[in-house]
UniProtKB/TrEMBL annotation:
Biological processes annotated in GO: catecholamine biosynthetic process; histamine biosynthetic process; L-histidine catabolic process
Protein name: Histidine decarboxylase
GO cellular component: cytoplasm
Gene Ontology molecular functions: histidine decarboxylase activity; pyridoxal phosphate binding
Residues bearing the modification N6-(pyridoxal phosphate)lysine: K291
EC number, UniProt record: 4.1.1.22
Family: Belongs to the group II decarboxylase family.
Region (Disordered): 558-612
Keywords for this protein: Catecholamine biosynthesis, Decarboxylase, Lyase, Pyridoxal phosphate
Feature: compositional bias, Low complexity: 577-588
Enzyme class: lyase
Biased composition annotated in UniProt, kind: Basic and acidic residues: 558-576
Requisite cofactors: pyridoxal 5'-phosphate
Amino acid sequence: MVDYICSYLDSIRDRRVFPGVQPGFVHDRIPENAPLDGEPWPDIFADVENVIMPGVTHWQSPRMHAYYPALTSYPSMLAEMLTNAINCLGFTWASSPACTELEMIVTNWLGKMIGLPYHFLHNKESDGGGVIQTTASESTLISLLSGRNITIQRYLKLHPDVPIHEIHSKLVAYCSDQAHSSVEKAALIGLVILRYVESDAEYSMTGAKLLEAITEDKKKGLIPFWVCATLGTTGCCSFDDLENVAQVCHKEQLWCHADAAYAGCSFICPEYRKWLKGVDLIDSIALNPSKWLMVHFDCTVMWVRNSSALHCAFNVSPLYLTHEFSGLAIDYMHWQIPLSKRFRSLKLWFVIRSYGVKGLQEHIKKGVKLAEKFESLIKADKRFEIPAKRHLGLVVFRLKGDNMTTETLCKRINSRGKIHCVPANLNGKYVIRFCITSQRTTEQDIETDWKEITDVTNNLLSENSLDIALQGDNEIYGSSLLLSNTPTSSPTIVNGSFAALNDEGHVLDEFSMIINIPRDNFAMRKRVRGILMSGKKYSLDSRLDLFQALNTDKKLRTVKPIKESGKPDDASHFSEESSPQSSPKCSPVKNNTCSKCGHSTYGYKPKSNKDK
C-alpha cells in the first residue's frame, strides 16, 4: 500500500482530475450484501484501482483548481499512520498526556508563526490558548455558542426576571453576505437570528455597515451578540475590514470571531498580515492547516482570548472523567463539542518540523506566484474579465457577456476532465474560480491549463448557437445553480451537483419527470420571501416550479418571480393550505402561469368548466 500511495502521487498528473462517471456507478461494482467470510488482501487491494479510483476527484492533482486546497504531505502521512496505530482518545490530560501537551505546544508555535497577540497563546499570564478542532465550521459554531452563553448570562444579571427563552429569541448574529455557508448553519443550530451585512464594492464587510445593522436591530428590541468577520471569502477571497469590525464589536460588547480558514495560512508570511490588523480586539480566530499547510484533513486550529467562555458553554464533568490533576492541566473536552479527540497535533508537529517556517513560507509564496501567472494570462485575452481583485492563490474570471456563456464554458471544461473548476456568484455574475491547490503545480501546468481553457473557449464561441437547457437573465442561472443543493447565501458555490459540473441537459429532463406534485403554496412563498429579503439567492426547493414547467424538448417555461412584498398574497385567491391542484382559483393561462398572481400552475387540470 505504501508503494501504491507513492506511485499514485508521483503519477497523479496523468490522471483525469474530475471523474467521468454517472451517479450510482459504485453500486454497480460492489455486491449488495457484505461477504460472510473474509476476503484475501490481494482481492481487496485490486478493487482500490478497479472500483474506487475511477470515481475519485483527485484533490492532490496539480490540475485541480476547484474549491480551496486540501493538501497533504509525506510527513503528515507518516504522522497519521502513527496516530492511527496509537489511536488514543484525548478528552482529558490523563487520557493521553502527550496528546494534550503537544497540542498546546504546536498551537502556540503556529500562533507565533502568524503573529497572534500573546493573549491567544497558552501561558500563565493569559486565559487564552489554542485548540485543534475538526473544521472551521465547527470553530464557527463553538464561538457562536460561547458568545450566546455569555450574552444570555450578562443580560440575566441586568434583567433577572426575563425568561431565558425570551432572551434567546431576540439574539442576533451578523456576517457578511459573502460569508461561508457554515455561518448560516451555526445560526440554525444555535437557534439565533442571522443578519447578512451588505458588502462593499470590494466584497468586504465594513465597520460602518455593521454598526448600521446593529443600531437598527437594537431599535427593534433585538439583542446583537456575535459577529463573524471573514478573512478570505469562498467566492473571491475578499477580506472583511477586521480592524473596524473589531472596534465596533468591542464597543458594542459583541463576540467577534475571525474565519480565516484558507487565507490564515498565508499569515505565516509577514507581508500578508496586513489583513490581520485589528486581531488584538477579537475574541477568537480559526484557520485550517489542512488547507494550505500540507497537513491532512481534518485539522483546524482555533485560538480564543478567554478559554473560560468555552468552559462555561461546554463543561460537563461526570465522575468517570475526573482525575487527580483535574484543574491543574487542560482537559480539551471542555474546549469542544465532542468529548473525545484524535491525536491531530502529531501531524502538525511533523509538518512544521519537516519544512520549517521558511519552507512553509516558500510554499505559500509559490502558490501566490502561480496565481499571478494565471491572472496575467487572463488579462492578456480580451475575451475574459476578472470581476474581483485577485488575492493570494485564487483568481475568479468569466467570459465577457451573459452568464450562460460562462456557465457553459465551466461545464464543458469539467466534462473533459483535464482540469477541474467550480463556479461562484458575485453580485449576480457567474464566475469561474481558479485556485492553486497543489504543491506539485508548476508554471508549465498553468500554461497547459490555460491552453485547455482557451481551446474550450474557442470551440464554444465558434458555435452558432449554444446548447443550453435554460435561457434566463443574470439573476437566475441555468441548471448548475438550480440543481445544486448548495447554501442559498451568496456566494453560491456549486460544489456537489453532477449537473452543475457537466453539460448534461438530459439530467434536467429526467429530473423534471419525477416532479409531479406542485410545491407552490403560501408557506413556501413566505419562506422564499424571507430569502429574498435577506439578500440570498434562490434555493433548490424555492425554484422547483421551474422544473415542473420543463418540457421534453429541453426548454424551460418562464415563471414570474415571487413578489418581494412584506405581506402575504391575497389569501382569498390562494390560501395557505391550497395548491394549484387543490384550489382552482389559480387559472392556467399562457405558459401555465396564473393571470392573477403570476405563480406557476403547471400540473393543474380543471375538474369542470366552472373550475376553468
